[in-house]
Amino acid sequence: MTDDATYGFDTLQIHAGAKPDPATGARQTPIYQTTAYVFRDADHAAALFNLQEVGFIYSRLTNPTVAVLQERIATLEGGVGAVCCSSGHAAQIMALFPLMGPGKNIIASTRLYGGTVTQFSQTIKRFGWSCKFVDFDDVDAVKAAVDDDTRAIFGEAIANPGGYIMDVRTIADVADDAGIPLIIDNTTATPYLCRPIELGATLVVHSTTKYLTGNGTVMGGCVVDSGKFDWSANDKFPSFSQPEPAYHGLKFHETFGPLAFTFHSIAIGLRDLGMTMNPQAAHYTLMGTETLSLRMDRHVENAMKIANWLENDDRVDYVTYAGLESSPYFERAKSVCPKGAGGLFTFAVKGGYDACVKLVNALEIFSHVANLGDTRSLIIHSASTTHRQLNAEQQKAAGASANVVRVSIGTEDANDLIADLDQALSKATN
Ligand SMILES: *Cc1c(COP(=O)(O)O)cnc(C)c1O
């Protein structure tokens, strides 16, 4: 299928990037379980290695099954290209890698996945990179944090652990004025609920481990490029604007235009960092994307019902779900994610830390796991698990205080989920 922009999301999520296998006619995308590809002749091999011709060389760089997934996610996000990686965290490093260098910094939202806070506050320091965490609702503070060494702004559209919606367009304007890209982690929203590129984002990163795969089977990540950023407008991005010594002085932006980021990520990023997605993982994720919109609609419908029920329950202090009118982000959600505020939210249990631990233990349908975006309903007490590495102040900023649990609402029968929460809350608050 040609990726005709006139096709609707429901059609593209099944067909984009894929066609019947030319060798066998297989209708489903085959799993190309191979590490290498035969060159036609020595000239063909040389052209591929010089990036003069696009093709398959070695599966650390490109693989036909992974390539279909890359094209599909790029199409669903409205980008020009994408590169898949071994995990969401790998995707974040892959997104930053060509932008950064020793002494350079990024500005990130205080409301992020716990693992990302750790990656940005600790691990990237080993590369000589640093991160300034800023409250993205304080736009002046975001502007003030930008300095000559800032190379990107990073936030989550619907922030994990839930309830916070980022004003993507406003922060995109700040990035534009500073001449730097905005990177949006769209994992918890998915391209069905939120379209960051239309709101001004340059790059979109995903943990495909979550909703895109949708059933908790395989790890993966993806970086999508909007193709809209002018990497040569200033001297901040020499990886794209300056000659690349490892490719005979080729300039990625001059040579590949809007695909500069995508080609650099494959030719340099995957080649040298090796955070490659394997074809089995791509296969599972391709199958997941086929039902993305159907699942997201149900996740949102169930999350609304359950958040409403919890909000009216005496054993619960508060619920932070941007789909509720009580949320300070209710209005913003309508423009950032018009099809719904996602399937993730947090709620505070009367009785604090101990009650949260009892609740998690008493639930029967909900599983206590460090994951989200599964068809199964999941719960986690962030303060004792995913956000454990953070201090109390960081936990609070991330919406993960000791009395709060996070739920990832699945696609089961909402009444069964409510009954399960009801019985467990009784045990937790007795
Ligand atoms: C899970 C997650 C990540 C990290 O992805 P992995 O696939 O676990 O490496 C990053 N951001 C968000 C919002 C996530 O939910």
Description:
The protein contains 17 helices and 14 strands. It is α/β, with parallel strands linked by helices and 430 residues long. Strands 1-9-8-7-4-2-3 form a seven-stranded mixed beta sheet, sandwiched between helices. A five-stranded mixed beta sheet has the order 10-11-14-13-12. The protein has a two-stranded antiparallel ribbon with strand order 5-6. Helix 8 links the parallel strand 7 and strand 8. Helix 1 runs antiparallel to helix 3. The longest helix has 20 residues. The termini are far apart. The model has no long low-confidence stretch (mean pLDDT 94). The protein binds pyridoxal-5'-phosphate. Pyridoxal-5'-phosphate binds next to helix 4 and helix 5.
